[in-house]
């Protein structure tokens, strides 16, 4: 937003917008990491050695661990927050991955039945658990590892709770 003098308005963003901006930036940085995990490690390293299903399980377990670590770091950097804000951040993070997975797959012409393979938990696939981790990781990390932040104490980049 520009003021009358042509300079940027210095209004700080609220804690929710700040947390969502952090999540979006991490998601952008996470795309190449997820690609290496899926297309290099899972397909070229694990699958020839242990088979497609076990390779998927190893790669998705790795992704869950990475998501939890990223949730910890981002929640720590966020300063103060409310549990509802953390849940919104998780919903945003999960939504970005769903949009990327479905949108990207459909753009490149990948058949829907091929996209849905990873959703079959009854066959041992773990993609729904990865999405559940993206949804709940900010809330779990925020309420268990950083509970004082939601109580009004400050973090490294404290933002007022609104």
- Helix share bin: over 70%
| Total number of helices | 6
Poorly predicted runs of 5 or more residues: 158-162
- Taking all Cα atoms into account, the compactness measure Rg is 19 Å
Sequence of secondary-structure elements: HHHHHH
- The proportion of residues in beta strands is under 5%
How far apart, in Å, are the first and last alpha carbons? 22 Å
How many independent structural domains? Answer: 1
- Give me the secondary-structure category: mainly alpha
Q: How many DSSP-defined strands?
A: 0
Average pLDDT metric? 86
Major β-sheet annotation: none
* Shape annotation: elongated
Descriptive report:
The protein has 162 residues and is mostly helical. It has one domain (22-146). Helix content is 70%, strand content 0%. It is built from 6 helices and no strands. The chain has helices spanning 15-50, 52-78, 83-107, 112-115, 127-144, 147-150. Helix 1 runs antiparallel to helix 2 (52-78) and helix 1 crosses helix 3 (83-107). The radius of gyration is 19 Å and the shape is elongated. Residues 158-162 have low confidence and may be disordered.
């Amino acid at each position: 937003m520009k003021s009358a003098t042509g300079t940027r308005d210095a209004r700080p963003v609220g804690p929710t917008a700040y947390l969502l901006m952090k999540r979006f930036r991490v998601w952008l940085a996470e795309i190449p990491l997820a690609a290496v995990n899926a297309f290099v490690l899972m397909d070229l390293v694990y699958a020839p050695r242990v088979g497609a299903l076990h390779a998927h399980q190893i790669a998705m377990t790795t992704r869950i661990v990475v998501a939890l670590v990223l949730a910890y770091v981002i929640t720590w950097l966020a300063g103060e927050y409310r549990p509802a804000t953390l849940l919104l951040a998780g919903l945003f993070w999960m939504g970005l991955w769903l949009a990327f997975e479905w949108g990207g797959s459909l753009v490149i012409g990948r058949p829907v039945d091929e996209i849905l393979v990873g959703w079959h938990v009854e066959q041992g696939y773990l993609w729904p658990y990865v999405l559940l981790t993206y949804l709940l990781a900010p809330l779990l990390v925020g309420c268990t590892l950083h509970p004082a932040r939601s109580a009004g104490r400050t973090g490294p980049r404290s933002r007022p709770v609104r």
